[in-house]
Amino acid sequence: MFFKLLLPALALMLMPPWADAAGLNQANTAWVLTSTALVLFMTIPGLSLFYAGLVRSKNVLSVLMQCFAITCLVSLLWLVGVYSFIFADGGQWQALMGGASKAFLLGIGPDALVGDIPETVYFMFQMTFAIITPALIVGAFAERMKFSAMLWFSGLWLIIVYVPICHWLWGGGWLANLGAMDFAGGIVIHVNAGVAALVSALVLGNRRGFPTTAMPPHNMTMVVTGAGMLWVGWYGFNAGSALTADGRAGMAMLVTHIGAASGALTWMAIEWRRFGKPSVLGIVTGMVAGLGTITPASGFVGPLGALVIGVTAGVVCFYATQYVKRSLKIDDSLDVFPVHGVGGITGSLLTGVFAASSLGGLGLKEGVSIIQQVGIQALAVIVTIVWSALFSYLILKALGKTIGLRVSADEETQGLDQVLHEETGYLDL
Hints:
Layout: H1 2-14, H2 26-54, H3 60-87, E1 113-114, E2 117-118, H4 119-141, H5 147-170, H6 174-178, H7 186-204, H8 220-239, H9 247-275, H10 280-294, H11 303-327, H12 336-354, H13 370-402, H14 409-414, H15 416-421
Antiparallel strand pairs: 1-2
Helix pairs in contact: 2-3, 2-4, 2-8, 3-4, 3-5, 4-5, 4-7, 5-13, 7-12, 7-13, 8-9, 8-10, 9-10, 9-11, 10-11, 10-12, 11-12, 12-13
């Protein structure tokens, strides 16, 4: 009798402290919980402050309000059914879409697992990705879109555009089955949001006075503060996507940092040579470009790949920004497409190259060559561009015909803070 009682006790003592009998891994759970907080920190307050500092002072609160409202709206839509239609079993339609079995998380209790972490934690982690994606698009139509139109666009875009693309790549859809690689959202988030941002800028048109009137950031201190928060939060974005507290997460964090640093210094160097002086705005924009570009590759490449990807991001995104603003004269107000869209495309294609073990990566699937993988990556990028562009355009046009997209010329001149919210960010205004 004594031994019958002793043996279970010894088994519990010998069981690793990070696991329990139900299959829950406490270390992994703790890391994904931490990463969830870091990714939400990227939007509120990181992206919010970054964007708010970049606009003019009369619109600072409108941008903060948009990011905050999107966070709340997406969270509720995620619970109602968005999560389910991405990650629940879609049966015979699984290649195209998920099912409704996890709507409202009905039947999902605290003991339900995804892998070895609670599904509630996985739900929250993925929700933070869904939050930041439409929030990124805000930078394209800043200072001129109606608040009501922004809410409708963000909600409809999440359902019509984000859900299928996310499912195809992360929910067991057809692109994932083809072998497309997107570790933390280079395609799902950055290409997707970047293309929608470009379409939004084209449909809404330029701000009054663009490009002849200078519209510099009103608060660079706020911009740098937000950029620093983005950099720190991005560790949860990329390393958290491993869903494990192991060497792969560590490598993802390392290459994320290398990508950010090399992107920032490359952008700064180009700007310094071209304009004579390095700017604070340039170095932080290069950092964001490096982060966005390394994102799809972060769980697949090594430090060498991260360095090349980061430098490439600094070069490609810098000249893309110049081309969109100065040559095409498209008022993508806060450079969402040239930084996130172009960066996401670049990083997604380079993932197929530097994931190869011969170049320091973690290796491609057996029997798949670099050329084949780049082709698969290109297909996923093209599909995302077409889907996002088409349905972003249709949503915007439908809203334009119904509630209207843009504030009046006089309201735009006065500023959205006063016109839409009857508040001001600064007492002297």
